[in-house]
Write a structure and sequence with these properties.
- The protein is built from five helices and seven strands.
- By secondary structure, it is of the alpha/beta class.
- It has one domain: Glutaredoxin.
- A seven-stranded mixed β-sheet has the order 2-1-5-4-3-6-7.
- It is globular.
- The protein starts with a helix and ends in a 16-residue tail after the last helix.
- The N terminus and C terminus are likely disordered.
């Protein structure tokens, strides 16, 4: 059984970390890693594999929820990025299953007229594969299927994250050249 001292130390440690903002690449899948496949579902229930999108062009994954205040804060920047870069980058919202249903996510997306592809992480496979720390987590993946950015929070600089794709969307990394 945990002692009172251990409990207090645990709470103080948690409080200290809660006050430190999480910056890009501090947590989650490593930058430079190959983006993993994961089994998810379309909001209509069809099975989908993330591999369908990976390695064919740049991809931005956002792990989000309708109840997430940081996701709502990030939404305008993502919507603007989709309008600017949607012709060359696939934006995928992966709805986490905590306190969510596909129907609730679909209704939210329709009400707010959110563009992009939306999937549902039914059993958490994508969240585990990408080591998602919490909602509002972005993963930018280049055309070669490599992670070039990860970050959390509502104030992420989406344009700066997308700039890491380079002018070719990361294609030059396929043959080992750096951008």
């Amino acid at each position: 059984m945990m002692s009172l001292r251990q409990s207090v130390l645990g709470l103080l440690t948690a409080a200290a970390f809660a006050t430190v903002p999480v910056a890009a690449q501090d947590t989650g899948i490593a930058v430079g890693a190959t983006a993993p496949d994961a089994a998810v579902h379309a909001l209509d229930g069809r099975a989908v594999n993330l591999a369908t999108y990976l390695g064919k062009g740049p991809v931005v994954l956002e792990f989000w929820a309708t109840w997430c205040p940081l996701c709502k804060q990030l939404e305008p920047a993502l919507t603007a990025a989709k309008a600017t870069h949607g012709h060359r980058v696939t934006f995928i919202g992966i709805t986490v299953p905590q306190n969510q249903t596909p129907a609730r996510a679909r209704a939210f997306i329709e009400k707010h007229e959110l563009p992009g592809v939306y999937l549902f992480d039914t059993d958490g496979a994508a969240s585990r594969a990408y080591a998602v720390p919490h909602t509002s987590y972005l993963v930018v993946i280049n055309a070669a299927g490599k992670v070039v950015y990860t970050g959390v929070g509502g104030t992420q600089d989406v344009e700066a994250a997308l700039a890491r794709l380079g002018p070719e969307g990361g294609r030059s990394m396929m043959d080992g050249r750096e951008e």
